[in-house]
Specification:
This protein has a five-stranded mixed beta sheet. The protein has a four-stranded antiparallel beta sheet with strand order 2-8-5-6. The chain has a three-stranded mixed beta sheet with strand order 4-3-7, with no helix packed on it. It is globular, with a radius of gyration of 24 Å. Helices cover about 35% and strands about 20% of the residues. It folds into three domains: about 150 residues, Alpha-Beta Complex (Adenine-n6-DNA-methyltransferase TaqI, Chain A, domain 2), CATH 3.90.220; about 100 residues, Orthogonal Bundle (Helix Hairpins); about 140 residues, DNA methylase specificity domains (Adenine-n6-DNA-methyltransferase TaqI, Chain A, domain 2), CATH 3.90.220. The two termini are about 20 Å apart. With about 400 residues, the chain is an alpha+beta fold.
Length: about 400
């Protein structure tokens, strides 16, 4: 690392090499349902999710100055949920930054590789700097522009920046390709479901019933966290709605928490089989997933055990189509919750057995490919996360990593 140089961010800004800015403080009346996305923290989570954002009218863009995304920007969530990152790739539609977002924009690519800068933000060097200042206020965590401009960044020679960014970027690109492919596969499955459900002729052959009549609906609970015997050394997957919050596709491969056999005995619904459909029932309502592992659940779910006659792929898509009614059936004072007793009586149309088999035959390969892509992305992300700190500390040679890859 003898050629690596520690740089003051303030000096890089003064030398017109780097720009560090924050978002536009829009008034509510400035936002609309048309225009370009107005991105907030919730839209930054392992990439950009700009489908359901407020919009900023294009006729008013002169107000925001340079607070519009550009290719190569590195985005840092600096308020509230601090420490999410995203890289503005080519092809991402431009958007307006909100005040909760900061962007680091390389002005001289002969000094800094923008994508290297993005990966540097995952390094220990940046983590120690932003985590040291984020809790200075009594309010939510916040890393001010002033604090960011006081930071330092260690840069290797440009050729090495390119090489490091190339290795890590190739892994990221494949993960992104899998993500886009999965969105396409899900859209295809949704289209097949839609065609089946609007088939007027099929209405004569199917049947109208209620959810509780055709699937098994159960809930979950949380073993006492005061009892280590329920948790310590546990290997049984135990899901909360948080496990579904960041899913790119409605497939659950893993959980953040595990419980023991004793802990499992505290949950009346027990260990739910692979293929169970999960619906988060409160705070918020509407996260969905099909489990790919046997899983126990907490009280924040409605779990739906399906059958060959009413398969999980059908229920998953039916839930998506009927989410507005599901939320409308929710009640509660502290927060809205859809209870099992309110969910079971919902009306549901079940196509004929023949049509259902055709549906499963059409969509099963799509969902199987989604699972394959997710597992591959999980492996690639693990490799990337292992390599990143070692590359950023100069512990491994780029050429050696390239050979192994």
């Amino acid at each position: 690392m003898k050629d690596w140089k520690r740089n003051s961010v303030a000096d890089l800004i003064a030398d017109n090499i780097l720009f560090v800015g924050d978002g536009y403080r829009a008034k509510n009346e400035e936002l609309a349902h048309h225009g370009i996305p107005f991105a907030r923290v919730s839209n930054i989570n392992d990439g950009f999710h700009l489908e359901d954002t407020d919009r900023f009218p294009e006729k008013d863009l002169h107000k925001v100055g340079n607070k519009i995304s550009q290719h190569g920007d590195v985005v840092f969530t600096s308020k509230g949920t601090v420490g999410r990152f995203a890289f503005v790739r080519r092809g991402i539609p431009r958007f307006v930054y909100s005040p909760q977002l900061c962007f680091w924009r390389v002005l001289d690519t002969q000094i800094i590789d923008p994508r290297f800068l993005y990966f540097w933000m995952f390094s220990r060097e940046f983590f120690l700097q932003f985590s040291g200042v984020k809790g200075q206020t009594d309010m939510a965590d916040y890393v001010s522009l002033a604090d960011q401009r006081k930071m330092h960044i260690t840069l290797p020679p440009l050729s090495e920046q390119h090489a490091i960014a190339g290795i890590l970027g190739a892994l990221d690109d494949k993960i992104e390709l899998n993500r886009r492919m999965n969105r396409t596969l899900e859209s295809m499955a949704r289209a097949v479901f839609g065609e089946m459900m609007k088939d007027e002729g099929e209405r004569m052959n199917g049947r109208e019933t209620t959810v509780g009549e055709v699937v098994t609906v159960v809930g979950g609970s949380t073993p006492s966290t005061a009892n280590p015997a329920f948790w310590d050394g546990g290997s049984i997957h135990w899901a909360t709605p948080r496990d579904l919050a960041g899913l790119q596709s409605p497939i659950l491969l893993d959980t953040n928490s595990q419980i023991t056999e004793l802990g499992l005995q505290e949950i009346s619904s027990g260990l739910l089989p692979t293929g169970t459909v999960l619906l988060s029932s409160r705070a918020p309502i509407g996260y969905l997933a099909i489990t790919q592992i046997p899983t126990a659940i907490n009280q924040g779910f409605i779990a739906i055990k399906c059958s060959e006659e009413v398969p999980n792929y059908f229920i998953l898509n039916w839930l998506k189509d009927n989410m507005e009614e599901i939320i409308g059936r929710a009640n509660g004072t502290t927060f809205l919750e859809i209870t099992k007793s309110n969910f079971r009586p919902m009306n549901i149309f079940i196509p004929s057995p023949g049509k259902m088999k055709e549906f499963v035959k059409a969509v099963e390969p799509l969902y199987e490919k989604i699972v394959i892509n997710l597992k591959e992305s999980h492996t690639l992300a693990g490799l990337r996360d292992t390599l990143l700190p070692r590359l950023m500390r100069g512990e491994v040679r780029v050429k050696d990593v390239e050979k192994e890859l």
